[in-house]
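Task: sequence design from structure.
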């Protein structure tokens, strides 16, 4: 999957994709390389890698 394909996905699809890759044992850096993003890009997108899984940044409350 390239960056464009990843960015076209919904937030839920992105989250599921990232965690599927992690549960398959794919290295975090390899996942980032495959989707053409950096750790900072992923953080701006609201996803963080903690303890061999991805978590989403909670939505902002008004």
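Answer:
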């Amino acid at each position: 999957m390239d960056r464009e394909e990843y960015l076209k996905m919904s937030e839920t699809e992105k989250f599921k994709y990232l965690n599927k890759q992690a549960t398959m044992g794919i290295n975090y850096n390899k996942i980032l390389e495959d989707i053409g993003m950096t750790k900072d890009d992923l953080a701006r997108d609201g996803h963080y890698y903690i303890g061999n899984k991805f978590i989403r940044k909670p939505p902002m409350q008004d």
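The chain has one domain: 3-56.
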